Amino acid sequence: MRLPTAAVTAGSLIGGWQVARRTGVRPLGGVVLAAGGALAGREWARTTGPVTTGALVATYVGAFGLSHPLAKKIGAWPSVLTVSALTAAASYVVSDRRRAR
Questions:
Q1: Which among 42, 45, 61 has a CA at the least distance from the CA of 53?
Q2: How far out from the chain centre does Cα 30 lie?
Q3: pTM, two decimal places
Q4: In terms of CB atoms within 10 Å, which of 44, 51, 54, 89 comes out highest?
């Protein structure tokens, strides 16, 4: 089964943030983030090379890290939506689109 990693990465970034925000338990949001990253990473490893997988994992983790300082400048929702969109776009262009052909 082909997994749309663009949806997984965007959904887990947004979902992880919402879980942490609504429950007040940041590690619980981290669990959502880690689960999404593991799921997408497994798919990338299955369908792309190790260099591409590493680059996409770095993009995903970097997006999470970037969302924090970005939130101080533009707000939490805009920050999370921005990094989620960028991560989803990278996942789609580098991995998902290639498989759809």
A1: 45
A2: 12
A3: 0.91
A4: 44
